[in-house]
Structures are given as structure tokens and as C-alpha cells.
Amino acid sequence: KQILVINGVNLNLLGTREPHIYGAQTLADVSIHLDKIGAELGIKVAHFQSNYEGAIVDCIQAARGNTDWIIINAGAFTHTSVAIRDALTGVAIPFVEVHISNVHARETFRHHSYLSDKAAGVIVGLGTYGYEAALRFCARELAK
Ligand code: DQA
């Protein structure tokens, strides 16, 4: 069983970018932690980050046939990208949408997501723990 964690635009800056909003953990810290939880749960965790919308679309398309769940924080692409939405629905891999911050407590342009109505669930505002919560949820679904 494989779960793919996709991080979009600017999430490579995690740990140094607006730490009062996104926390002190780097993306590498988060990935290592998820690998550890995955190992405990007997699930392979794959990781992808890009600042390029098309690269994320390519990654989602390549996941077809080898990935059981996707966990995605598309960053600002969340609020702009019909293309990422279409890729996710196109491959028909179930996914959980994660946002580190509570997007609903921020600017109104962050309140709309092109992904949420297609997601199995959406996690916002739990900090980087949101990725772990999503991973544990996916593992539970896979065990059903
Ligand atoms: C984010 C929220 C987005 O609005 C923002 O553009 C990001 C990060 C989050 O994880 O809280 O880059 O997805």
C-alpha cells in the first residue's frame, strides 16, 4: 500500500517561511516524521514537492496504478488551480486536502478551494500535525 504526499508551491520554504503561521518544522522534518508513522502502520509513504503547477499534475497522473491515497497541500494553487483539481478527479485516487494554517481565519481569497468538494476530507489549522492526522486516516481507510 502506498500513500503519496504532495506539497505545492512555497511549501519547500517550510520552517523559514512565516513561522508564526506555518511553524518551525521544515518539509524534510515533516517527511521524515511521516515516513516513521508510515513504517509503524506498514504503509509506504512517497513524497513530492514542486513550485510548478504542471509538475504537480504530472506527479498526480503518474500516481495512477501505484498509489492508494493522496495527501495534498497544494499551497496557493489550492485557490487557483482547476488543473490540479482535474488531475485528481481524472486519476480517481481518493485524497485528503491539508492546510497547515486555518485558511478560514485568514484572507477571504483563501476561503475557496478548488479541491475541497472532491476531497474525502479537509484538514485545516492543525499545523504540520495535519499531515500525520491525514496519514492515520488514510491508513485506517486502507485497513477496512
Ligand atoms: C496553505 C494555505 C494557503 O492559503 C497558502 O497559500 C499556502 C499554505 C497552508 O498549508 O496553510 O501556501 O496551504
TrEMBL record:
<comment type="pathway">
    <text>Metabolic intermediate biosynthesis; chorismate biosynthesis; chorismate from D-erythrose 4-phosphate and phosphoenolpyruvate: step 3/7.</text>
</comment>
<feature type="binding site">
    <location>
        <position position="73"/>
    </location>
    <ligand>
        <name>substrate</name>
    </ligand>
</feature>
<comment type="subunit">
    <text>Homododecamer.</text>
</comment>
<feature type="binding site">
    <location>
        <position position="79"/>
    </location>
    <ligand>
        <name>substrate</name>
    </ligand>
</feature>
<protein>
    <recommendedName>
        <fullName>3-dehydroquinate dehydratase</fullName>
        <ecNumber>4.2.1.10</ecNumber>
    </recommendedName>
</protein>
<feature type="binding site">
    <location>
        <begin position="100"/>
        <end position="101"/>
    </location>
    <ligand>
        <name>substrate</name>
    </ligand>
</feature>
<dbReference type="InterPro" id="IPR036441">
    <property type="entry name" value="DHquinase_II_sf"/>
</dbReference>
<dbReference type="GO" id="GO:0008652">
    <property type="term" value="P:amino acid biosynthetic process"/>
</dbReference>
<dbReference type="GO" id="GO:0019631">
    <property type="term" value="P:quinate catabolic process"/>
</dbReference>
<feature type="binding site">
    <location>
        <position position="86"/>
    </location>
    <ligand>
        <name>substrate</name>
    </ligand>
</feature>
<keyword id="KW-0028">Amino-acid biosynthesis</keyword>
<feature type="site" description="Transition state stabilizer">
    <location>
        <position position="17"/>
    </location>
</feature>
<dbReference type="InterPro" id="IPR001874">
    <property type="entry name" value="DHquinase_II"/>
</dbReference>
<comment type="similarity">
    <text>Belongs to the type-II 3-dehydroquinase family.</text>
</comment>
<feature type="binding site">
    <location>
        <position position="110"/>
    </location>
    <ligand>
        <name>substrate</name>
    </ligand>
</feature>
<comment type="function">
    <text>Catalyzes a trans-dehydration via an enolate intermediate.</text>
</comment>
<feature type="active site" description="Proton donor">
    <location>
        <position position="99"/>
    </location>
</feature>
<dbReference type="GO" id="GO:0009423">
    <property type="term" value="P:chorismate biosynthetic process"/>
</dbReference>
<dbReference type="GO" id="GO:0009073">
    <property type="term" value="P:aromatic amino acid family biosynthetic process"/>
</dbReference>
<feature type="active site" description="Proton acceptor">
    <location>
        <position position="22"/>
    </location>
</feature>
<dbReference type="Pfam" id="PF01220">
    <property type="entry name" value="DHquinase_II"/>
</dbReference>
<dbReference type="GO" id="GO:0003855">
    <property type="term" value="F:3-dehydroquinate dehydratase activity"/>
</dbReference>
<keyword id="KW-0456">Lyase</keyword>
<keyword id="KW-0057">Aromatic amino acid biosynthesis</keyword>
